[in-house]
Amino acid sequence: MSASIANRRAGGTGIKWFGALIAILLLAFSVFVATRTPASTAVEPSPIVQHVAPAISGDTVTGGHVALSNYRGKFVLVNFFASWCASCAIEEPQLVRFSKSGIGKVLAVDFQDEDRPAIAFLGRYGANWPAVADPNGQIAVKWGVSAPPESFLVSPSGMVLTKIVGPVTAKELAILVQVAKANGY
Amino acid sequence: MVTSAPERIGKVNRQVNRQRRHFATARALMAIWGGIAAVILCSFAILIFNSATPSSTAGRIVHLEGEFKCPSCIDLSVAESSAASSISIKTFIKNEVAQGATDAQIKDQLVASYGNSILFTPPKSGAYLVIWVLPFGLLLLLGYFSLRPILSRKGWAQSERGSPNDPRSDDGTPNIGDVSGDLALSMIPLGETINQPANHDPANHDPANHDPANHEVAVEGAETRPSRSSMPRSLLALLRRSTSTSGRKYLAIFGAAFCVAGVGLGLYTFEQSRSQAASRALESRELTQAIDYTYSGQDVSALRLLSLVLHQDPYQPQALAYQGWLLFQAGVKTKSPSLVQKGEQLVLDAIAIQPRYPDAHGFLAMIDLYVYHETGQAKKQFSEFLADSPSPTIRTDLSAAYKGAIAAVQAKPATAP
Q1: Taking CA B305 as the corner, what is the angle to CA B299 and CA A44, rounded to the nearest 5 degrees?
Q2: N or C: which end of chain B has fewer CB within 10 A?
């Protein structure tokens, strides 16, 4: 009996060790997963960066017509905004400073908004650049915009250099343009 | 040693009871696995039913809306969300369907704009395939190891005659397990040892049979020898045997693999917890991506990502060093003293925070050469860079640049910007 029990115990111990090993591995895996950045909040690089900018052509909120292709040869900041967006109000004075500095042009896209509030919003900050109306958000979908404010720096040759999520400052934009110039864009 | 009949009956009864409990557990185990298999089959059936594209246009639009994730929400599909971005995507899907685009075309367009993160379920290709296959693989593996002795005829045969390594099972011992229950007990002649050979063959009069331990072997054989009708009942006994015989090598292989993986994960986790915010950020996606961008010449994108990292942690030394290096380079190219100075200051800040960060020393060596033409100071910084074990890629890149810069300075000293 004792030999058999010993034999069985050896088997039982094996199973216990195996179970304990699995438990330790699960614990280690849980710790590993828990210390990772949640996939839902991870920032994925925009697929359109370093590619030709998607076309923008349409009526502005003031009734004119504008196209991104008109800006070839200049650095352009394509800025997606909305009058209902609180962060856009924080960003707008910085964009005005950037525009006035002459470093680059701003082309705004009014995302899921109405013309009248958008005109009032731009007027409040003295923003005098054209704003393309995008009431259904179809331009935003082509640019992969999630929520305003989001901006894209476009090179003089029409390539998207970087995507900026959230409010941007005039100083940061100036540095980005300077670095882009230094890299031959 | 001679065992009296009542003792033997009591012993066998206790063992039979224990065996019954084991059989009950085995049945429960079988029921659980059956349940898991049923759930998986039902899930597959539902999945196949749901993944079929509806024939009506409205149904197709609703189905597509469920395929994409709301870009500004957490774990919500476009169909479930009323966020502005989801409404835009809903409109986009509706327009594309109306224009005759296929589901694949719509999917490709959205992935081209937003990346794979727009997909509500990960793609079933490339590295993402692991996410789909791994759970089922592990489940199958577990199921296989649990049920292997039953599925294996060899294992079953071994279980019927006992362990192949156990000579006591094949020694001609009267086998009370060949018949079950009370009948087995009634076959044991009173006053005789249980393991006495039935045929009284002199060849079987092995002294080992008189070993007190062997008196109980036959009883043990009765305990572990199942009848044909109780095939599932033998699961636990077979599992035990598998762990003590042929299954041991499988357990050893998988155990070793799991140990290696566990140790790796453990070390990684330990390293993660040991480091401060700086090294955690180093591992972060943004910083790694920014460094990749720096070395692939995408300075603007790199700078933007570095700004994001520094926004989260203004004293992140790697981000400071790389931002400083990029600004310095831009300053040299555009002949901007303010940018050069700012770049140098950021690299110095990085060294002040993490004195043994090799890349920062490498950058400072280059700055010393370009700005101050101080070969002595540059050599000192570069020695520190090499001493602090930089990554091979950075070592190669910076070493080449350093040699070129040294040669240029020695050939023609220039003025500081």
Answers
A1: 115
A2: N
A49 found inside a domain = no
Whether residues A33 and A9 share a domain: the answer is yes
Q: Which residues in B lie closer than 8 A to residue A138 (C-beta atoms)? A: 88, 91-92, 95
Domain assignment present for residue A176? The answer is: yes
User: Who among A25, A140, A178 is closest to B334 (CB)?
Assistant: A178
Give the pLDDT of residue A92. Answer: 95
Q: Is the same domain home to A24 and A72?
A: no
- Tell me, yes or no, whether A48 lies in a domain: no
Residue B96, pLDDT score: 93
Three-state DSSP class for residue B263: helix
Beta bridge partners of A160: A154
Q: Which of residues 71-100 of A touch B (CB under 8 A)?
A: 82
Q: Given an 8 Å threshold on Cβ–Cβ distance, is A178 in contact with B265?
A: no
**Same domain flag for A100 and A19:** no
Nearest C-alpha in B relative to A14: B243
Nearest-Cα distance to chain B for A124, in Å, is 24
Q: Name the average pLDDT for chain A.
A: 87
B340, B328 Cβ separation under 8 angstroms: yes
Structural domains of chain B ordered from first start? 277-411 (1.25.40.10)
Cross-chain CB nearest to A182 (options B113, B213, B334): B334
**Are B262 and A24 inside 8 Å of each other by CB?**
yes
Would A47 be classed as within a structural domain? Answer: no
Q: Do A44 and B83 touch (CB under 8 A)?
A: no
What's the gap between Cα A103 and its chain centre? 22
For strand A76-81 and strand A105-111, is the pairing parallel, antiparallel, or unpaired? parallel
Choose among A10, A44, A153: nearest Cβ to B244. A10
Confirm if B324 and B350 have CB atoms less than 8 A apart.
yes
Residues A11, A37 share a domain: yes
Phi, psi of A75, rounded to the nearest 5 degrees: -75, 130
**Chain A CB contacts of B272 below 8 Å:** 35
**Owning domain of residue A67:** 57-182
* CATH number of the domain within which A147 lies: 3.40.30.10
Q: What is the pLDDT of residues A45-88, one digit of tens each?
A: 889 999 999 999 999 999 999 999 999 999 999 999 999 999 99
d(CA B356, CA A134): 51
**Cβ atoms of B251 and A18 closer than 8 Å:** yes
Q: Would you state the structure tokens that stand for residue B204, as one six-digit string?
A: 């079987």
A53 touches chain B (CB under 8 A): no
Using omega within 30 degrees of 0 as the cis cutoff, is the peptide bond preceding A149 cis? yes
Question: Angle formed by the axes of helices B358-367 and B337-353, to 10°?
Answer: 150
The rounded distance, in Å, linking the Cα atoms of B128 and B235 is 36
List all residues 6 or more positions away from B168 whose beta carbon is below 8 Å from its beta carbon.
Answer: B162, B214, B217, B221
pLDDT tens, A15-54? 777 778 878 888 888 887 777 666 555 556 889 999 999 9
Write the residue in B75, B259, B339 that is nearest to A21 by C-beta: B259
Tell me, yes or no, if A46 comes closer than 8 A to chain B by beta carbon. yes
Inter-chain touch A136–B88, beta carbons under 8 Å: yes
Q: In chain B, whose CA is at the least distance from the CA of A153?
A: B300
pLDDT digits (tens, 9 = 90+) for B270-294: 555 554 444 454 456 778 888 888 8
